[in-house]
Amino acid sequence: MFKNSVRLLCANFDKVWKLLVYHILSIGLVLALLCIFYNHYVDAGSFAYNESNLSGAFDSGTLYGSSLANGLTAVIDFVLIFFREIFSNVGIGIYFCLISFILLPLLLNIGKYVTCEMMYGYMSSCQKQSFTGTYLKTLKNSLTYSIIKVFYCMPFNGLIVLSMWGLTRVDNAIFDYIMPFAFVIVPAILMAFKETFNAGWAPAKVVYNQNVFKSFMIGMRAVLRRGARVFSTAFVIFLLAIVLSVILGLYSIIIILPLISPLIHIFEMVMFFSSQGMRFYVDSDTILSPKRLEEVDKIEDAKYIL
């Protein structure tokens, strides 16, 4: 699945640029809305930046244990202090959370759905579609999917953030040298766990055009047919992303994120097509034929096919 996902990413690299432009516009919209209370957020950010000593966290080559431990602790402290400051005015704090944790993920999920729809056209018939046209055509379906997914993913995101906070609270000199491994492995496992419970949702919605809840069930059945492979492939993708970010420095995220996001979307489509036994293009000259459902389902499931 990883190999085919990378091949499809290379064959559809135009979608990387289109999705990147969409993400930039979405983030720009969110920042424009936050500018209503610009002074309050800037003052809170400046205070948190100075109090947390965040300046040293953006050095490149942060793989060394104590450097990574100190950098990650500074980032977490910055976030905690920033939220404490913006919630000095409760209304402004709630507004920030609604825009940042509801509206932004909503927009990003719509972009994910559009990318999956475009990949469905390519994988099923080698068809190229415009991003804008697909966005407008699928807006009703993508909006419903995105709204529900935002709230569904909150516990997963909370668990990931809590794990990062927990790692920075360990005060032990020896753990500073274990921190690079813990920081790489723990988030990668949790994000792969989250991806396993989400990987089939958007593809099932795109392919079968059912309601959101039925699509989730179809997607989960598809994931469970190859649960271990889905988890391990997602783990490898997130592990590579985190390792590269740690080795190259936090600024490398500017390059890594635009690639990881479409790769994850494509991986979900590859997983779903493979699990459903659906043939698909990996490039304009190659069609793959996965095993049919009756070849991969358990015997107690296969006996109902006729």
Describe the structure.
The structure is a single chain. The chain is an all-alpha fold. It has 15 helices and two strands. The protein has a two-stranded antiparallel sheet with strand order 1-2. Helix 4 packs across helix 8 and helix 9 packs across helix 12. The radius of gyration is 21 Å and the shape is globular. The C terminus is likely disordered.
How would you sum up this structure in a few lines?
The chain is mainly α.
Structural key phrases:
two-stranded antiparallel ribbon, mainly alpha, 306 residues
Instruction: Name the strands of the widest sheet in spatial order.
Output: 1-2
Query: Strand percentage, roughly?
Result: under 5%
How many helical stretches?
15
Largest sheet: 2 strands, antiparallel
Cα-based radius of gyration, to the nearest Å: 21 Å
**Which blocks of ≥5 consecutive residues have pLDDT under 50?**
60-65, 301-306
The CA-CA distance between the termini, in Å, is 29 Å
Helix content: over 70%
Provide the residue-averaged pLDDT: 86
Listing every helix as H and every strand as E from the N terminus to the C terminus, the arrangement reads HHHHHHHHHHHHHEEHH
Number of strands: 2
Give the overall silhouette: globular
How would you classify the helix and strand content by structural class?
mainly alpha
Detail the topology: elements first, then pairings.
Elements: H1 2-11, H2 13-34, H3 38-52, H4 65-86, H5 90-125, H6 131-137, H7 139-152, H8 154-168, H9 175-196, H10 201-208, H11 212-225, H12 227-248, H13 253-275, E1 280-283, E2 286-288, H14 293-296, H15 299-302
Antiparallel strand pairs: 1-2
Helix pairs in contact: 1-2, 1-13, 2-5, 2-13, 3-4, 4-8, 4-9, 5-7, 5-10, 5-13, 8-9, 9-12, 10-11, 12-13
